C-alpha cells in the first residue's frame, strides 16, 4: 500500500542549455519551481542527476559540481553561468 502525502501541479518554465567549456560539454536543464522554496531544479543530462540551486548556492560547488558531473577545471565557468541564469527567482518567458 502507498500513501500519497502531497500532490501539486504547476506550470514550470524549463530552459535547456548546451554548454561548451574549453575542456568539456555539459547539457543542463533548469526548471524553476515554487515547490522547492524558490530553488531551481538543475538536471545534468550526462550524469542523470539533479541539484536544487539558487543564487546563494553558486559558491557551494562541493555540493552541486559532483552531482552535475562538473569537472574541477570547469567550476569557475559554470559558476559564472549560474550567476547569470539563477539571479532572479523565476525565469522570464522568452517569447
Provide the helix percentage. Answer: 10-25%
Structural class: alpha+beta
Largest sheet: 4 strands, antiparallel
Please tell me how large the radius of gyration is: 14 Å
Spatial order of strands in the largest sheet: 1-2-3-4
Summed up, the domain count is 1
Per DSSP, the total helix count is 2
Order of helices and strands: EEEEHH
In round numbers, the mean pLDDT is: 88
Which stretches are poorly predicted, pLDDT < 50 over at least 5 residues?
90-95
Q: End-to-end span in angstroms?
A: 44 Å
Oligomer: single chain
Q: DSSP strand (E) fraction?
A: 25-35%
Give the overall silhouette: elongated
Count of DSSP strands = 4
In short:
The protein has 95 residues and is α+β, with helices and mostly antiparallel strands.
Walk me through what this model shows.
The protein has 95 residues and is of the alpha+beta class. The protein has one domain (14-85). The chain is 20% helix and 26% strand. It is elongated, with a radius of gyration of 14 Å. Residues 90-95 have low confidence and may be disordered.
List the helices and strands and how they pair.
Elements: E1 14-20, E2 25-32, E3 40-44, E4 49-53, H1 61-68, H2 75-85
Antiparallel strand pairs: 1-2, 2-3, 3-4
Structural key phrases:
single chain, 95 residues, alpha+beta, 4 strands, 26% strand, elongated, disordered C terminus
